[in-house]
């Protein structure tokens, strides 16, 4: 099952031109989480409840390997919401136009999912010693930053970004919760490679 979340904030012409940007680069495609074109080595996370079974390498949409998703080491709640993240290195600059998410199915035993999340992005490589990466929080045209996640462990929910992220290499998904819960996540990014000038 797939449910769609349209983050649609009007017919702003600049948004339309950005949305059509991928037409110049071969159209919008899945960027490689489900297909594993994005390697495990490109996936990192703030923590994992257990690295082998629910580490970031298991956060692939429609895959049910090992524990079935990425799950951070601690529960989220009102005071810890936004403190955990999963990151993907796309390897080169891309346009990101959409994100699809699932929870943890775990061969039918999983019950954990992420109801809401933020997206952070960066063009530059993380400086491991000083952590100087400049992360920008994605916001829609009307300045909303919270994206709708899932309502169960296995239904795919897709968010179309009416304000696409342009010329980006690193993406972080940051789960949110205002009540105490275990969150788990699988995802795919949609968009295209970017070979234009930096804007």
UniProtKB/TrEMBL annotation:
The keyword Flavoprotein does not apply. It comes from the Eukaryota. This is Discoidin domain receptor-like protein 1. Transmembrane segments: none annotated. Keywords: Receptor. InterPro entries: FA58C, Galactose-bd-like_sf.
């Amino acid at each position: 099952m797939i449910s769609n979340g349209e983050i649609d904030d009007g017919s702003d012409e600049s948004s339309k031109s950005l949305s059509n940007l991928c037409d110049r680069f071969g159209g919008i495609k899945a960027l490689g989480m489900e297909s594993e074109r994005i390697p495990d080595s490109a996936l990192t996370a703030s923590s994992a409840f257990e690295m082998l079974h629910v580490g970031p390498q298991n956060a692939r949409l429609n895959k049910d390997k090992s524990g079935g998703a990425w799950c951070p080491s601690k529960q989220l709640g009102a005071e810890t919401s936004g403190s955990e993240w999963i990151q993907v290195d796309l390897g080169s600059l891309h346009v990101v136009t959409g994100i699809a998410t699932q929870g943890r199915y775990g061969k039918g035993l999983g019950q954990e999912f992420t109801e809401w999340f933020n997206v952070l992005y960066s063009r530059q490589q993380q400086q491991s010693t000083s952590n100087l990466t400049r992360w920008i929080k994605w916001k829609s045209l009307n300045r909303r930053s919270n994206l709708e996640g899932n309502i169960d462990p296995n239904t795919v929910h897709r968010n179309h970004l009416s304000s696409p992220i342009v010329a980006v290499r690193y993406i972080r998904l940051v789960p949110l919760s205002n009540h105490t819960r275990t969150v788990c996540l699988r995802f795919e990014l949609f968009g295209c490679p970017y070979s234009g000038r930096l804007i």
